[in-house]
Structures are given as C-alpha cells and as structure tokens.
Design brief:
The protein has about 625 residues and is an alpha+beta fold. It has 12 helices and 25 strands. This is Protein kinase domain-containing protein.
Length: about 625
Amino acid sequence: MAQLAADDPRSVGGYRLLSKLGAGGMGSVYLARSGGGRTVAVKLIKAELAAESEFRSRFRLEVEAARRVGERWTAPVLDADTEAETPWVATGYIAGPSLEQVISSRVQQGHGPLPENSVRTLAYGLASALLDIHGAGVVHRDLKPSNVLVTIDGPRVIDFGIVRALDALPDSTVTSTGVVVGSPSYMSPEQIRAQQVTPASDVFCMGSVLAFAATGRPPFGSTSGGMHAVMFNIATEDPDLEGIEEPLRGLIASCLAKDPADRPAPEDVIAGVQPISTGTAAAPWLPATLIAELGRHAVQLLDTDTPPSGSGAPSGVPDAESGQSGSTSAPRVLPEDPTSALPQPARQQAPAPSTASRSRRRYAAAGAAAVIVAGAAFFASGAELPLVGEDEPNQTSGSSDIPDSYVGTWSGPVVRDGEPTGQYRRFTISRGKIGEVVANSFSLGTDYECKSDAKLVSVGKSLELDTRVIKSVGRKCSALGSHTVTSNSDSTLTWQAAGRSATLKRVEQPEKLPEEYVGTWQRQLPGGGTQRVTIEQLREGSPMSVAMVSESSTLHCEAKADIFSVGGDGEPVRLGPPLVDKEASSGECRTGPPSTLSVEDGSMRRAFAEGDTEFDYTPAQ
C-alpha cells in the first residue's frame, strides 16, 4: 500500500480515494470512501486495455455478471462505469486478511494450519461462493488463498468474474505483459493444458485452497522449487494430503480429481460438510487467537481517517488486486447481514469520524473484540450441550437460538389438503442463530429432487425458515417462501409451507445404509448389455449417492442418484432421479424418475414412483 502519487486521481465516480492498494494486470486498485462514508475498493482499468474495444465489451459483460452474484460469500460490486474513458469498478471492502496471510502467519508463529472445524466452514463458504458465481454465468479461474479473505462471519471470495476478461484478448497487451489467468500452485490440470475451463476447474482450485488451509502447504508443491515442476505435479501426480483426517481428506481428494467429470459439484461439497453454522453469534469458526487478531484489525479501520487532500492513510491495508495484505492490514467493511443472498442497502455509511468520535469508537470496538475473544475461548474448549431427552424438549445450547428438540435429521411424506402428494421432505437441522443457515432441505417428488439451504428467520412456537435452492434434478425447482417447523409432544416435527405439510420423524442414523444393500448389483438390459448399480456404505462428509453404469454395444452411460433416505424399519431406500455424467457417457443415455430399493432373498428390487415398472438385480460376479 502507498500514499497517492502526484499522477494518481483524487476521486473516481464520486468516491474519494485514500491510498493506493496495489496494481495488477488490469490496472490499479485504491482504497476509497463513498460520499456517505462507506469504505470501498476502486479498480481503475489500464488505458491500453480500455482502448481495446473487445476488452471493453467483455469487461462490460463481466461487470454485469458480477453484479448478479450478490454479496453473501463474495465482495459485492457496488458501482461501476464501463463506458468512462478510464473504466472502473467499485467493490465492498471486506473485513479480514487473506487466507494466505493467515496460514503463513500461523505456521511462522508455530500455531499450525487451521483446525478441522475451520476448514469445514471454509469449504462450506467457498463452495457457496462458487455456487453463486457459477449461477451468475461466471467462472472464477483464479481461486487461490490470496483471493480468499477471512472474516469473523466466514470466508469471502474476491476478484471473481472480471478475471475472464483477461484472456479475451490473446494478442493484446494483456498477454504481452506476461499476465497469466491463474496462479501456478492453484491452477487446474485443464488450465495448465490450455483446455476448456469450466466451473469444475474452480472446484479443483478450491480443493487446493482447502488442502493449503488444512496443512499449511500447497498440495502439489511450492513454486520455489520451480514453476514447471508444480505444473507437472498438478497435471500428473497425486496431491500431498498428509496430515488431513477423514472424511475431510476424501472430500478434498475428490475435488482434486484430474478428470473434471469426477469432481463434485459445489452443492455436493456443501452437503458433504453439513451440518455447519456461520455468523457472528454462532460458535466462532476460527481459533481464538485469530479472532483476537481480527478484533485488532477492526479497531484499525475505525482509525482510518479521510485525508482532506486524499493523501495519507494507514500502512498495511490489504491489496485488493492480489488479496495480499501487510502485517497490520485494516479490514474491509461488510454489510450488516452477511448471510443474506440479497443485496443490502448501505446501512453502514456514516460521516468520516472526527478525532473525538474516533476515540469513542475505538473504545467500543475494542470492547466488542474482547467479547468476541471471550466467546471464542469458551467455544474453543470443545464443550457442547448434548441433545436433551423428551422431558426437556425446548432447552437450547448457549450458542444457539434453536431448541435442542429440533436438532437432527427428520423425514416424512408430504400431504396437501389431507391428501398424499407422492412427495417426501427431509430436513437436517443444526444449532445456530437467527440470520444463519441452520438447515438443509431435501425434497423428493415423483419426477424431481430439490436441495436447499435454510436460514433461520425467527424462533417462537415454531421455527421460521427461509430457503434457497442449491440443486435441482429432473426439473427446475423454486423456493416455496416461508417454511415453519414445529416440535410436537410425540417427538415428531410438523413442517408447513405453501399449503403443504408433513409429519417428520427423526432419522436415528441418517448416514447408515443397511449392510444388505452394500455391493454391486446388475441386471440385463432388454436390448442387450448390462446395468450395474454400485452401492457403498456411506461415510460422514461423503456425497450420499449410488453409481449406475449401463453398457451395451451402442452406448455407455454413467449416472449417479442421490440417496434421499437410507431405509430400515421396513422402509425402502429412496433414490432421487439419476443424473447422467454427459462427459463420461456416449450414446443415447436416458434416466428414469426417483425410485426405491428393497432387498429380499439376496436380490435387489428397484421400483419407480410412477407406474408399475420394477427391475430386479442380482449380485455382480
């Protein structure tokens, strides 16, 4: 970070520039404040790039895509002028240092990398960010530790969307100046091979970031040993995941599969690390020492004055272009509700502080930091209240607004106006505070499945939840609006939404399949060939699905079907509609609707929700 030079502008688009944060392949980045006092990062595009009509057109499209991403897990795009002589974009200034700085500092100080719970929350946040980014039609292409900022409320991803504009001009000054889209230690194999880059590439990069957070080292080696050696390892060698315990190790390894088709989707990663809870009121996701450091950063930001001439600012502010930050980096300002998927108004804006007001606010911020640290020390002890019995149905743990009688996995059939709909609903509810994601919902219909995250809106006689669809199979799903879940005296839950309801019973072992289902089963296809269904015992953190492969002289079809329920007590195993892996399949591959599995006398029967069709499978030899 540096003071403004004589040739630096003093304002851009109504934003008062405070200091220069850094420079990169696209231009320069400045710390700035809006007219209302909000701290932002303003990126000015290089003049030579602005002169390229193709670049400007791509930049315009990427800014529009970035606006659609929202701000739940990313730095929000607040303002931009893509038509100015010097185009620019302003983003929110996130409160926290980069993951690269955090891990490097912890390793140097002897604290080691992040603990498992922190890495799980990191995985949830990064996967959620990718889900939002990919949903806006954007591929990040440069997800690395310096582009992940660490905040008390969870990780935030920066520098997404616009990075795609760099390779729109293969013969422009962008290439000639040596700019590379991607960082060698965190590239995907397809980036190294100059192949088509898809959202699956971001999943690979996420796996590398998670491995770094869990071990303190890149999984394919450091560029200090030679950039080409690292790139060779990424393309051909297994990652170094030594020291990472299961099930986290298996999840990271799946993200680092060489074949993009073998990597999980972001929604699968989200499901694999559940249940998890984030937010300022929840048990902190970071170690207590790191929480204390973030509290000190918060005090420093309050002391950042707006110089009358635009010159002068505290040193060590994070580099918004690269995500790097100095040892005394000031944090970036977050919207009040970081869990909201909707853009928030600028509620934090305030006049630039005077000396007296800064002194008062310094005291207040220091006090808040002390409260956070005290909470971190308590939760770091690992103490957690057990689930209560039927005689104590509504007690809550100290870190949660949710009564313990709700915590767990619940499932049941859906009715409407008293009539069965053929649909089933499953909720996995964890502890958490109002405003946090506290549940996962799985809806299984006669021809579809929907998976959603649920945020806690209010707590009273019932829980009120607001859901967001994260996965649809079969047909497009949409959120039903407000959901209510009520605890009953008979140890069941009643779920209601949009005129539908269900009595949900507790699932005692939601990730334990009856052993008689485990194995590979096969049947003969009517036109010749075989279909094989492979069912493996579920492991905590692993995707709940079964693999299906159909093979004949004219086709090869690979698909996976999510497991809705694991059966037992006379109930069948329920599967969602299979999803074909198009890259691994050839020929005319078609799949059916949801189905149920049952095993009797050594054979397995698969029946479909609609019609009388049933298939019988025998153990594969």
